[in-house]
C-alpha cells in the first residue's frame, strides 16, 4: 500500500483533523492555546521547534510526524502514520539509533519494559543482537500491563506484526524477565545501546525513574548510547505528580538529570519546545483518545519527550 506524506497544508490533514474534532464529545478533546508568556518560558533555551535534523532530547510535535522520516519508520514497523505520541516514541528510538550509526549488523541492544512494541523486531531486520526485557510475570505490577496488551512474557509477542522473518527473528532476539529497579549485574557493560519507551515514569516516584536512567548506563559498553522516552509536564515547572503509578517530569527534573549524567561523562542536549502547529495544541481529556500529542492529567498537561544520552 502506498502511503501519502502528511503535510500541514494538505487537504487530507485538515479533513482528518475536522472529522476527529467534530465526531468526539467535548469531554474527550479540547483545543488549548499556549499563553505567550508561558511559551517564552518553555522555549527559553531552545527557541526552534524540534526536528529530526539532528535528533536531540526533544518533545513530540506535529512537524516531526508529518515528515518523510516518520513515514519511512512507520512503514518499517508495519503501521500507518498517525498523530500518536506512542507511535512517535518508537520512531524517536529508531531514528536516534540510525543517526548514531547503531543500526549495523553485530551491534547489541538492550530494551527495558518492551511490552509488545515493534522495536525489537525492526532491529532484528538489521541483524542486531537484541535482549528484550519486561517485568517478571509474577510481579503484581505486570497485571495491569497485561490487561492493556502492553506486557511481554514470551518471545513471539515481540513480532506480532510480522516485521521480521521468523528464523532471523529467533536468531537475533532473546527475551528475559528483568525488573527495571534491580538490573542484574551480569548485564553491565554488554551493550552498544539501551532503550525504553515511556516506562521509567511508572516506577513510583520521580527519583526512582531518574535512578533507573542512571543505572541503565551501566549496561553500556564504553562509548554506548541510551535512549529513553518519558512523560514531560508541559504547563508546570513547579508542581507535578512526584509519587504515583505515573509521575510527570518537569523541565527542572530533566535538567537535573542532564547535570547528573554530565558528571558521569555523558551528554544529553535538551530542547523543550513543544511545537506550534495545529495538532500541538490538541489536548486529550479522559477518557483518552489515541490521536493526540498531549494529555490532560488534572491539573497538568503532559506530552512525550525523548532523551538521547551519549558518552
TrEMBL record:
Residues 154-227 form the Methyltransferase type domain. It holds the Pfam family Methyltransf_11. One of its GO terms (molecular function) is S-adenosylmethionine-dependent methyltransferase activity. This is Methyltransferase type 11 domain-containing protein. It comes from Sulfobacillus benefaciens. The lineage of its organism: Bacteria, Bacillati, Bacillota, Clostridia, Eubacteriales.
Amino acid at each position: 500500500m502506498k502511503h501519502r506524506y502528511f503535510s500541514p497544508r494538505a487537504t487530507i490533514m485538515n479533513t482528518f483533523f475536522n472529522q476527529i474534532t467534530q465526531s468526539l464529545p467535548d469531554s474527550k478533546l479540547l483545543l488549548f492555546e499556549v499563553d505567550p508568556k508561558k511559551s517564552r518560558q518553555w522555549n527559553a533555551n531552545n527557541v526552534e521547534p524540534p526536528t529530526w535534523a539532528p535528533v536531540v532530547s526533544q518533545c513530540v510535535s506535529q512537524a516531526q510526524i508529518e515528515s518523510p522520516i516518520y513515514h519511512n519508520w512507520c512503514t518499517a514497523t508495519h503501521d500507518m502514520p498517525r498523530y500518536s505520541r506512542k507511535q512517535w516514541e518508537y520512531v524517536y528510538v529508531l531514528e536516534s539509533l540510525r543517526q548514531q550509526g547503531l543500526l549495523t549488523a553485530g551491534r547489541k541492544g538492550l530494551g527495558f519494559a518492551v511490552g509488545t512494541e515493534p522495536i525489537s523486531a525492526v532491529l532484528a531486520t538489521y541483524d542486531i543482537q537484541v535482549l528484550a526485557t519486561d517485568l517478571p510475570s509474577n510481579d503484581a505490577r505486570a497485571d495491569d500491563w497485561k490487561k492493556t496488551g502492553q506486557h511481554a512474557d514470551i518471545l513471539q509477542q515481540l513480532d506480532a506484526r510480522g516485521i521480521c522473518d521468523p528464523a532471523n527473528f529467533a536468531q537475533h532476539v532473546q527475551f528475559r524477565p528483568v525488573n527495571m529497579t534491580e538490573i542484574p549485574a551480569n548485564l553491565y557493560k554488554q551493550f552498544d545501546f539501551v532503550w525504553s519507551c515511556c516506562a521509567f515514569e511508572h516506577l513510583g516516584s520521580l527519583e526512582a525513574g531518574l535512578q533507573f536512567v542512571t543505572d541503565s548506563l551501566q549496561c553500556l559498553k564504553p562509548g554506548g548510547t541510551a535512549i529513553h522516552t518519558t512523560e514531560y509536564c508541559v504547563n508546570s515547572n513547579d508542581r507535578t505528580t512526584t509519587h504515583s503509578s505515573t509521575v510527570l517530569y518537569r523541565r527542572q527534573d530533566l535538567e537535573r538529570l542532564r547535570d547528573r549524567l554530565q558528571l558521569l561523562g555523558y551528554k544529553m542536549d535538551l530542547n523543550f519546545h513543544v511545537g506550534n502547529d495545529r495538532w500541538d495544541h490538541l489536548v486529550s481529556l479522559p477518557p483518552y483518545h489515541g490521536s493526540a500529542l498531549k494529555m490532560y492529567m488534572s491539573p497538568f498537561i503532559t506530552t512525550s519527550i525523548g532523551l538521547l544520552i551519549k558518552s
